[in-house]
Amino acid sequence: MEANIMLNNMIIAIAIFVASIVLIAWGRVHRAYVGLVSAAIFIVSGLLPLNKVLSYLDINVIGLLTGMAVITYYLERSGFTDWVTITFLKFSGFKPLNALLILAMLGSLISAVLDNVSTTLLLAPIAFRLASSFGVSAVPYVLAVALGSNLVGAALMIGDPPSMMVASALNLSFIDFIVFEGRPGVFFIIMAACPIAALTLLVTAKKYVKSSSSSADLKFVVSKNEVVLAEALTIFFLVVLLLSVRKMYEVPLWVPPIIGALVILALRAPVEKSLDAIIKGVDWKTIAFVASILLMSGGLAEVGFIDLIAKKVYEASGSGVVVTSAILIWISVLFSAFIDNIPYFAIMIPMVMTLSKLSGMDVYALMWALLIGGSLGGNCTYIGASANAVAVGLLEKRGYKVSFLEFTKLGVPYTMTAVLIGEALHYLIFIHA
Length: 433
What we know:
Layout: H1 2-26, H2 31-44, H3 53-56, H4 59-77, H5 80-91, H6 96-111, H7 116-134, H8 139-152, H9 161-170, E1 179-180, E2 183-184, H10 186-204, H11 226-245, H12 255-272, H13 276-279, H14 284-302, H15 305-315, H16 321-336, H17 341-359, H18 363-376, H19 386-397, H20 404-431
Antiparallel strand pairs: 1-2
Helix pairs in contact: 1-2, 2-14, 4-7, 4-11, 4-12, 4-14, 5-7, 6-7, 6-8, 6-10, 7-8, 7-19, 8-10, 8-19, 8-20, 9-17, 9-18, 10-20, 11-12, 14-19, 15-17, 16-18, 16-20, 17-18, 18-20
């Protein structure tokens, strides 16, 4: 009887989730409203128990989104973005596709030490200014930042939560992600995939830059507010510093950006007599959408769907470490495209460790496969990664409509290229060696 109830709950949960994906892809109803209604159905129906809501509603992500949005609002207002844009244009040779490629790479490099959402919020204003200077659509530029940041998030132990979860489960050090048992670590695998995946944008983004001239228009004037610039830059770098060392002092991820936002609001709001940084600077619809995806992912975990997938992987494990690693990589790609990876990794990490004990397969080879698939595979849609949702939200605020299908046209080739390279290197380094 209990098994039947569990199965019925799983079917209902999957149906709700699939229906929400279809509605989001349809595009006639804003994804934030679809997400909120779907998440509410999960809670009201009991698929996601009320006492579990806060555990899945990741306050770190919500706080980070809110705090960094306020800080970057003042950075953009200070004239900092225009100054960086001119420097960036000169470095790219004033070519739109060169600038796009460099921007994607820059997003990847920064996200190795700073979380993906912060990286996206930091570089998005520069992406908008670059697109404006070339007279082309900002869509590929902003999405390139998000795609690049998601790709490299798990390269280091301090990147994405899944990296921290894997490190905790296997008692890994920071160095193990760079060099593991005398071999190149997952850092080098992901970083090797990064530039080659970025090259796909030179093909998929061509339609966005057709109308561009061969060089950028540099007639805009860089107008800097020195006081706002000094305050915003100081607070921004202090927040980054706190984010870098927070684990040493067990400071939650949301604390540094929220403190930074409160400080700069205290400095600027009384002078400007305005709360536009909160009203206009924070994309509340995107925050609502991200929160709803976290809750729906939690609901799928609660009804046993992710656990079921883990069991299916376990049943297929008799084929050996090569096939099992491939299954782990590609199933992680599939689920990372649609659900948050924290509940997914929470289920899969213990499963991988049990699988290794029962089969004798190398636990490290399997765990790196899981991490590679989850890290490199999150860019197929804007649903499975918070940074992608943030990027789409920022574009919509500027009047750009990015459909589900349009995102996948940029994201899928980028993802498939990265995953294939990551899988090949994983085989050569951790299995064949």
